[in-house]
Design goal:
single chain, three-stranded antiparallel sheet, about 40% helix
Length: about 400
């Protein structure tokens, strides 16, 4: 009933939201004399904040239509090269550009859409042929498509690496560090010719026993049954995924906001003041950030619960006990895939050391094929977005990938 209650609340607020939108339009119209007064601007700003706070934000677009390579503007075309029930593989094709390292970016399936990595893709696009996993909102996947769990996630990664072929590089941002690492280990165990040439893991929960954060502690303090009973609900009849069990996006968003509630309140107060003062640039920056941040997706329940148990409660991967479809995942089989781990000094989601814990597991990977970097003065999102990502982390990732690229002779 939780999801149904949420939907009813949203529907009940719809008339008020539409009235606020209409009122804001009238009060901000330059033909209205009130639009030039402080009172009119204050009322218009208040209605804008209310309308946006009660809106459901749809999936954003990447909007990456061009990139700059060697000072030349190069058109970029987005194309779907692989479709699965819960994911599509998106390619950013650069006009007339060939020969650059082929990079599969595995986006997190943890609440936000793959567009959260827009800045990640934008920084790497000039030097790489980029593909990204574009996960579907579970509420939009009909029940007839079956279930999706952590084992399926690993299978998707393996299938996409095989689709792209030998000498592909893979990058996992945050949550997918575990399934990507497991996929590479399994491919190495099979001596798969499509095993990636390099693997970059960024801010991922390989071993959450190290520098545990608030989300890590919550996962340990609550039982598996608590998550199953409190966090899982069924999709209401208003969506294609009717009756599918999910961890709903609105619950995830509540958790995201609660972690930094004071910061979000301050941000919206500043947004209100920017609107009143006519500071369009700062108001637009706020709007763009929250249009992305507030756009959340539902997760398949079986995937979410399996991740809670395997990754955050039982720590099966670092303990050498992770199993994929009754088969032990053996990191020691990794011999040909170079490894780079990247962490943020102030990461409050995946604490420092959690991604770094990958290296001791790769006991048969030469040290010359391993790199580790900790970025000072950045939190979780700063690992893959923002100024320090663009100027300090992305160049290191680029150089690492090129060092282990094996172009066809």
């Amino acid at each position: 009933m939780l999801y149904h209650t949420h939907e009813l609340r949203r529907i009940a607020l719809q008339p008020a939201r539409l009235m606020a939108e209409a009122g804001q339009y009238v009060l901000s119209n330059p033909l209205n004399p009130w639009s030039q007064t402080w009172t009119g601007k204050a009322m218009s700003a208040a209605l804008t904040v209310f309308e946006e706070a009660t809106r459901r934000f749809d999936k954003p677009s990447f909007g990456l239509h061009h990139t700059v390579i060697d000072g030349v503007d190069v058109p970029v075309t987005e194309e779907i090269v692989g479709r699965r029930a819960f994911c599509q593989l998106r390619h950013f094709a650069r006009e007339g550009r060939t020969g650059d390292p082929r990079l599969l970016i595995v986006a997190p399936l943890s609440g936000h859409y793959a567009t959260l990595l827009r800045g990640t893709v934008e920084s790497l696009l000039p030097d790489h042929d980029i593909y990204i996993t574009d996960w579907r909102n579970a509420r939009d996947v009909p029940l007839s498509e079956g279930r999706f769990d952590l084992d399926d996630y690993i299978d998707y990664v393996r299938d996409y690496l095989r689709l792209l072929g030998p000498n592909t590089h893979v990058m996992a941002v945050c949550q997918p560090a575990v399934p990507v690492f497991a996929a590479v280990a399994l491919m190495s165990q099979d001596d798969d010719p499509c095993v990636p040439s390099s693997m970059t893991l960024m801010g991922g929960p390989i071993d959450t026993r190290k520098s545990p954060t608030a989300p890590n502690r919550l996962a340990k303090e609550r039982t598996y049954e608590w998550f199953e009973q409190k966090m899982i609900t069924r999709v209401p009849p208003t969506a294609p995924g009717f009756m599918r069990e999910v961890y709903p996006g609105f619950l995830q968003l509540t958790g995201f906001l609660a972690m930094n509630w004071d910061r979000h309140v301050e941000s919206h107060v500043n947004y209100y003041n920017h609107l009143v003062d006519g500071d369009g640039d700062n108001a637009q920056k706020h709007r763009e950030f929250y249009e992305e941040y507030m756009a959340v997706m539902d997760l398949p329940a079986e995937y979410y619960l399996q991740t809670i148990r395997v990754v955050f409660q039982e720590h099966l991967l670092p303990r050498g006990m992770m199993v994929h479809r009754d088969r032990l995942v053996r990191p020691e089989a990794i011999r040909k895939t170079a490894l780079l781990t990247v962490e943020g000094e102030n990461d409050d989601i995946s604490g420092p050391g959690q991604t770094q814990a990958t290296h001791p597991l790769c006991i048969n990977l030469p040290e010359s094929m391993q790199r580790d970097y900790i970025q000072p003065k950045v939190g979780h999102y700063g690992v893959f977005n923002g100024k320090r990502w663009h100027t300090e982390i992305a160049p290191r990732v680029r150089d690492f990938i090129r060092a282990f690229d094996q172009p066809a002779s």
